[in-house]
Amino acid sequence: MTRNSKFTIVLGITGSISAYRACDLILDLKESGVRVLPVLTRDAQHFVTPLAIQSLAGEAAQTDLMRVDGNLKPIHIELARQADLIVVCPASADILARMRMGLTDDLLSCTLLAAQSPVIVVPAMNDKMYEHPATQENLKVLRDRGVRVIDPIEGKLVCSDHAMGHIQANDVILKEILRILSERPARTQ
Q1: pTM higher than 0.85, yes or no?
Q2: Is 23 a catalytic residue?
Q3: DSSP states of the chain
Q4: For a tag site, which of 34, 48, 130, 153 has the least CB within 10 Å?
Q5: Using an 8 Å Cβ cutoff, are 56 and 28 in contact?
């Protein structure tokens, strides 16, 4: 819950209507004793505000790769260094493609490229986007590189009645995060 937590995760939040689910996930993680360092993409900020996320996490909501604020070290390298795990939830089709290609023009994608810790992605998008061959190929490549994918489920989507692409339930996401963290050595303070 604090800087004395045994584990620290970087929680990347991307542009999806499912971004609101990150709010409850942050609270669940903090209740489990995990320190959460939130990173919001520009598009995520259309769905949730940095102020709301920061208030829930108790940590600064990072949004800008080029923010200096007196930091002497690059923010993306520091975030990657501190992370016992990086979770991208929700993971848009855009971030999945960027991860696959190694594109780095924002804070989250730079942090992901610098990551030395395990990475989990939790896709959430329209069923047509999720089922598109490009997205499926991106997910296959990421899995082959060791990225853990918590697949979406069939459910109510904003753009259709009921289809694949609905974000997985928070309890399933939390369980997988805690399982992976339990396999890592705790940091000593």
Answers
A1: yes
A2: no
A3: --TT-SEEEEEEE-SSGGGGHHHHHHHHHHHTTEEEEEEE-TGGGGTS-HHHHHHHHTS--B--TT--TT-SS-HHHHHHHH-SEEEEEEE-HHHHHHHHHT--SSHHHHHHHH--S-EEEEE---HHHHHSHHHHHHHHHHHHTT-EE---EEE--SSSSSEEEEPPPHHHHHHHHHHHHHTSPPPP-
A4: 153
A5: no
Which two structure tokens, joined as six digits, stand for 72? 């002497």
Q: Of 23, 89, 110, 159, which is the active-site residue? A: 159
Two tokens, residue 161: 């009645």
Q: Any idea what the Cα angle at residue 79 is, between residues 149 and 29, rounded to 5°?
A: 55
Superfamily covering domain 7-182: Flavin prenyltransferase-like (3.40.50.1950)
